[in-house]
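[agent] plan:
  1. take the single chain provided in the ticket
  2. run structure prediction with default settings
  3. attach structure tokens to the ticket
  4. add a short note for the reviewer (M.T.)
[agent] executing step 1
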Amino acid sequence: MSDARAERTRTRLRAALLGECAEQPLAEVSVAAVVRRAGVGRATFYLHYPDLEALAVDACAQVVREAVDALHAWRGTPDPGAPPEPLTDFFRELHLQAPLHRALLREGGGGPLGELLHRELRARSRRERELAGAPAPEVVASAVAAAFTGLLADWLHGDPDRGPEEMAHLTWRLLISLHRTPLP
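[agent] step 2 finished; step 3 output follows
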């Protein structure tokens, strides 16, 4: 299958899954329902994904990219009193799609989406710190990735019970503190 055709098929499958998840929890979605909605055969599904969880992670991977970009949407000296607008927007959007993401990002930051978020955020944070010449880029990047992923996951699961704007503000303050921690 050509790359363009394969990507169109994956796009249809991702859209079908998101459509199904808008109507019922991921745990109740079946491969049969997804392929029916996407207008593809079951064998085609399995050519692209081993299971529904893999499709769901692929469908939600954009969330990971948005999170990483939102946390790095500033230049110069960050203002700890005001998170970047993309970070607040990210929390608002995620709040609207919480049920699907809850299934993939377990409390504490585990699950397939949590692992992907942690990996990508750690890599981006490390690169940014190295470019800035900040000390201990690998340590701070790991702490930022773990704190953000765990906090985001717990928030999606209802603890802490805060609105998206407040969570963006609190998360931003916490991450700024991690970056400003004096290290040798």
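[agent] step 4 note for reviewer: Residues 109 and 131 are 27 Å apart (CA to CA).
[agent] ticket updated
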